[in-house]
């Protein structure tokens, strides 16, 4: 596998990833910043790829233990190498489909940036990119159910998804008995539609749905105020 070397969080996280196919952008860093983990919390990431999300979370909250599930065995192995190169311990990257996860509830938090392009559309000519970004019908509900099975009561489940997936995710949360849903739009620029959103639910939560003001990512000078601190200085994204 030919790699593209890189770092995240202003060099705190080593993040080599495949030179060809799908490559991580802002989403896993913002998603990891939004997970309300504390020292000692066990955390699950589904679809961890080369480890960007879980590595960034572990860099921000060093005391967590983390488990990343990635169906591409080569990417799971690369994530382990990135963790070692970053000096991050307490993390395990499993080569497996998140739908096969089993065992008793054991995670305080779970998060994912799932594949979301419709499998019936035109696939990417690169197999790895198609595998990373293409979703079968029902994937959101299935992944939510799988992660919820191993979440502790009142554990958080956080997703980064396109706006069009909101109805499917809300239905999936309801079926998995996850409530107290909060939605945070990610505006690419002010006055632009939000293509992506962050969604969070609690295992067993019953509070009403909340839609928050959202986060503007860019202004005319580059990154919008507050975003640079998240992407470069490990500041949390609280919602």
Short summary of the structure?
The chain has helices at 27-34, 52-60, 73-86, 127-133, 139-149, 166-175, 227-233; strands spanning 3-4, 7-8, 13-14, 17-18, 42-46, 65-70, 91-95, 107-112, 117-118, 134-135, 151-162, 178-189, 196-203, 210-211, 215-219, 222-223. With 239 residues, it is of the alpha/beta class. It is globular.
Low-confidence stretches: 119-130
The helix/strand series, from N terminus to C terminus, equals: EEEEHEHEHEEEHEHEHEEEEEH
Number of strands: 16
Distance between the termini: 38 Å
In CATH, the topology is named: Rossmann fold
- Rounded mean pLDDT score: 91
Secondary structure layout:
Elements: E1 3-4, E2 7-8, E3 13-14, E4 17-18, H1 27-34, E5 42-46, H2 52-60, E6 65-70, H3 73-86, E7 91-95, E8 107-112, E9 117-118, H4 127-133, E10 134-135, H5 139-149, E11 151-162, H6 166-175, E12 178-189, E13 196-203, E14 210-211, E15 215-219, E16 222-223, H7 227-233
Parallel strand pairs: 5-6, 5-8, 6-7, 8-11, 9-10, 12-14, 12-15
Antiparallel strand pairs: 1-4, 2-3, 11-13, 12-13, 15-16
Helix pairs in contact: 1-2, 5-6
What report would you give on this structure?
Helices cover 28% and strands 31% of the residues. β5 (42-46), α2 (52-60) and β6 (65-70) form a beta-alpha-beta unit. It is of the alpha/beta class and 239 residues long. Strands 5, 6, 7, 8, 11, 12, 13, 14, 15 and 16 form a ten-stranded mixed beta sheet that branches. Strands 1-4 form a two-stranded antiparallel sheet. The chain has seven helices and 16 strands. The chain has helices at residues 27-34, 52-60, 73-86, 127-133, 139-149, 166-175, 227-233, and strands spanning 3-4, 7-8, 13-14, 17-18, 42-46, 65-70, 91-95, 107-112, 117-118, 134-135, 151-162, 178-189, 196-203, 210-211, 215-219, 222-223. It has a single domain, classed as 3-Layer(aba) Sandwich (Rossmann fold). It starts with a strand and ends in a 6-residue tail after the last helix. It is globular, with a radius of gyration of 17 Å.
